[in-house]
Specification:
This protein is of the alpha/beta class and about 325 residues long. The protein has 10 helices and 9 strands.
Length: about 325
């Protein structure tokens, strides 16, 4: 396991006073204002954002359509299209929830939040080897993470935003909730936190390219799956605890789920480990399939370099 070179973060707001940053500041201000609205209104606006994206974001719609066709072949054509549209709406709400996570205290949402399986975290912490929280890219990503920190002390691995100012806002917000917001490539920092018996949020469910992967099934489709999870667990001795977070469907509210640590993990077999990780995340997605980030090209990297691009227009 090699640690990649880290990008330099500058989270000082005084570094972003030049007029070229003003459009980003306007966007940040709009997010702050949106976060002050009542939750029901935010959900309604989020659905409208999703409807607009569904109509005009043709490329993302195509990716979502391909993913859902691959992962849910048992659905009828009408059911597939209904799920595609519902996914856009759920992720539209997720856009609004980013403002809640960054600019509102999660304490105000405790009356409408329920946590399930917290005893699994307590038992795993008692081992003294740290916990790798096996998360996924659900549409409640930011708010779910903020809500989690009301119940446990945790750190987070994040992919830094390409916009330095937006990254500063995101990182500062997350550092108020988490103990540390580590760059996703900072494996040395991750191992250090686990050695100190910390809990670290970690997601493996995206396509990170051809390096350090095996092609394990994800909804029955071979998907490039990183083996780093096994390496981290082997080196640190940490428990790998699956968790997920979803918004309720019929009334404003949220549910957080912790599950028992993965058994016999790592097993010494990269394919078996990656298959178990993918199946664990898949089981959570099936609870609320519309609340997953289907807009990501999960099957971009194919087992053979000669395999056709599943997301090209010619493939549909």
């Amino acid at each position: 396991m090699k640690t990649a070179k880290q990008r330099t973060r500058d989270t000082r707001y005084t570094s972003y006073l030049h007029p070229r940053w003003w459009p980003t500041w306007i966007g940040v201000a709009a997010m702050w204002l949106g976060a002050q609205l009542p939750l029901k209104l935010q959900w309604w606006l989020g659905k409208r954002i999703g409807d607009i994206a569904y109509r005009f974001a043709g490329h993302r719609k195509q990716i979502t359509d391909v993913n859902i066709r691959l992962c849910f072949p048992e659905l009828s054509e009408t059911e597939k299209q209904t799920l595609v549209k519902a996914s856009f709406r759920a992720n539209g709400i997720g856009v609004m929830e980013i403002g809640l996570a960054w600019f509102r205290s999660p304490t105000s949402f405790m009356p409408i939040t329920e946590v399930h399986g917290l005893e699994h975290v307590d038992a795993a912490l008692a081992r003294g080897k740290g916990i790798l929280l096996l998360g996924g890219h659900y549409s409640t990503l930011d708010l779910g993470g903020a809500l989690v920190t009301e119940y446990i002390e945790a750190d987070v691995m994040q992919r830094d935003h390409n916009n330095p100012l937006m990254n500063a806002v995101m990182t500062r917000a997350r550092e108020r909730r988490y103990g540390a917001a580590l760059d996703s490539r900072n494996l040395r920092g991750l191992l250090k936190q686990l050695k100190n018996n910390r809990i670290v949020w970690y997601a493996t469910d995206q396509d990170y390219g051809r390096k350090g992967i095996v092609f394990a099934p994800f909804f029955g489709v071979p998907a490039g799956s990183i083996t780093a999870t096994s390496r981290i667990a082997d080196r640190s001795g940490c428990a790998v605890v699956p968790f997920s977070h979803f918004r309720r469907e019929h009334a404003p509210g949220y549910d957080i789920y912790f599950h028992p640590p993965l058994e016999n993990f790592p097993s010494g077999d990269d394919m078996a480990d990656a298959t178990l990780v993918n199946k664990t995340i898949e089981n959570e997605i099936r609870k609320h399939p519309d609340q997953y980030l289907w807009m990501h090209r999960r099957f971009k990297t194919r087992p053979s370099r000669e395999d056709p691009n599943l997301y090209s227009k010619d493939a549909n």
